[in-house]
Amino acid sequence: MIGNWIDGAERVAVLTGAGISTDSGIPDYRGPSGVWTLDPELVKAFTYQSFMADASVRAAFWRTYHGHPAWRAQPNTAHRALADLEHSGVAVRVLTQNIDGLQQRAGSSPRKVIELHGTMHQVICTGCGRRTPSEQTLTRVEAGDSDPRCIDCGAILKLDVVLFGEHLNPATTGLAERIAANAQLMLAVGTSLQVEPVASLCAVAVNAGHRLVIVNRDPTPYDDLATAVIREPIGVVLPQICAALSTSDQALK
Description:
Layout: E1 11-16, H1 35-38, H2 48-53, H3 55-65, H4 77-87, E2 91-96, H5 102-105, E3 113-115, E4 118-125, E5 131-133, H6 134-142, E6 157-161, H7 170-182, E7 185-189, H8 201-207, E8 211-215, E9 228-230, H9 234-252
Parallel strand pairs: 1-2, 1-7, 2-3, 7-8, 8-9
Antiparallel strand pairs: 4-5, 4-6
Helix pairs in contact: 4-9, 7-8
């Protein structure tokens, strides 16, 4: 399962998606029990144009996140394996599509975790740009405010995450592309690789002459570019991969 694709990999980029956090009790989006699989209408709540135009959509969004299991979730073995890999001395950067912050809580250095789609732990005002801890807004939602507004300017509030139809931060994506282009090994873990432009980071790595290994339950559009595709459970196989990379790196020193 773990082949010679780990050999000489001193710089590792890890692109993580919702699948890495399901063992922490956070449902993914497109799986059999995914958020959008069970309630397709919720896709509207994650679409910027609909969110901004319709108070009922915003109310559905805040209902979804009020009491969401992500607030109570703890890092799992896969998160901890990536943190341990960093601490072993391997130059690893995590490019995450997740907004849950579990990778940092597992012990990864915040500066080495690139949150491509933002964070659920902050709320941003769509008018004045003021950022506040999410707890403040969620307390208002719990008290009955279904469409919370900024207390400074009265504009719409939203989680500080990238919704469908929003542009990613160009500085963030530019940094992620540089990391992908310079990593000797790109691991894509628990991501369907269906959301662009983040998924194309895999192509950036391959076009730069580097190895791509995909660890995911289901097929992805980038499987044909991969050096290896692994279908084993993430919580089992990722710690094995990280341990092998750590051992290989120590052998090089």
